Amino acid sequence: MQAKHQVQVSQSQHAQVARLLLQANLAYGESNSNGLSHIQRLKARQECRGYLNEALALEPENAVGLGLLGRVEMDDGQLEKAHTLFNASLNHQPGQAQQYCNLGYWALKTERPALAEQYFLQALDCDRQSAAAFCGVAHAKRLQGQFDLAYLHYRKLLETGAEWDSVYSGMLTCAQHLEVNKADSALAQDAIALLQRGGLPHQELGRFISAIIHHQYGLDNPDAQISLEAASEDELLILALQKTLMPNPAVEELVTLLRRAIIAEVAQTVELRDELQRLTLAIAQYADRTGYALAAENDEERLVSAINDSIQAQFALGEEQDGLIGSLMISTMYGALFHQPFAVQLGQWNLMDWPLALQPVLAASYYDRAEEEAIKQNFDEKAEELCLEKTDIPQAWPSWSRLAYRTESSLKTLIAAELGLDTVNLPATLRIMVCGAQSGQRAMELASYLDDVEVIAVDESLANIAKATRMANEMGMDNIVFWPWSIAQRFVADGHQVHWIEVGRLPSPAMTTLSLAALVNQATGSGAVVHMHTAIAEQTSGDKQIRKLVAEHKLQPTRQTLRQLRRMVLANRSDAAWQELTADADFYSLGGCRDRWFRPQDTAQLKELMAMASNEVEWKLVKARDVDGHSLATGPVQKQIQAEALGSEVQSLMGQSLSVYFLKRR
Question: InterPro entries under this entry (predicted)?
Answer without folding.
Answer: SAM-dependent_MTases_sf (IPR029063), TPR-like_helical_dom_sf (IPR011990), TPR_rpt (IPR019734)
